[in-house]
Amino acid sequence: MLGFCGTFDCIIDDKGRLLIPARIHSGNFDSLKGRGIQPGEIMILSLGLDGCLSLYPQDEWTKIQDRLESLSFTSGDYRFVNRFLHQYTSPVKVDRAGRILLPEKLRELAGFGKDVLVIGANQSIEIWDPTRHQNYLKDFGRKIEDVAEGLFHDGNDR
């Protein structure tokens, strides 16, 4: 299954709507039916962990919910993450033109102006202020090769 992918320069219109780029839609190459975002579909928009907004199909959001619900509510970390995720989350409906309305509070928290960067991130779509995204990449401080080596290292030198 190919997830959401690609990077797109987009604009938020005067009404706070964002057109989801058609080319970012994921496709399931294991079947003849592609998994595109459909008009009328309800998706979940949340403040992301790194300062972006994250847009999830409902089935992907359900996986996050299920994982969260498996944790102990007595944990302070659980309560903090649970509150963060839910206070900054909103269901959004894809209109006939493929647009979603970005709630004003979420736009403010993400530092959005008119221009945004839309990035496919496998299970979700990330929406970034372009300057904030550049700062995130710079501040991360490591090269992709080093990060990938650490994540994918299986103990065998090649």
Describe the structure.
There is one protein chain. The protein has helices at 58-69, 76-87, 104-109, 130-140, 144-152; strands at residues 7-11, 17-19, 42-47, 53-57, 89-93, 99-101, 115-121, 124-128. The chain is built from five helices and eight strands. Strand 3 (42-47) and strand 4 (53-57) form a beta hairpin. It is 32% helix and 25% strand. It is of the alpha+beta class and 158 residues long. The longest helix has 12 residues, at 58-69. The chain has one domain (7-152): Chemotaxis protein chec, CATH 3.40.1550. 16% of the residues are buried. The strands form two sheets. The chain has a six-stranded antiparallel β-sheet. Strands 2-6 form a two-stranded antiparallel sheet.
Average residue pLDDT: 88
Order of helices and strands: EEEEHHEEHEEHH
Helix-strand category: alpha+beta
Order of the strands making up the biggest sheet: 1-7-8-4-3-5
Distance between the termini: 28 Å
Give me the number of helical elements.
Answer: 5
- Compute the number of strand runs: 8
CATH architectural category:
3-Layer(aba) Sandwich
Number of domains: 1
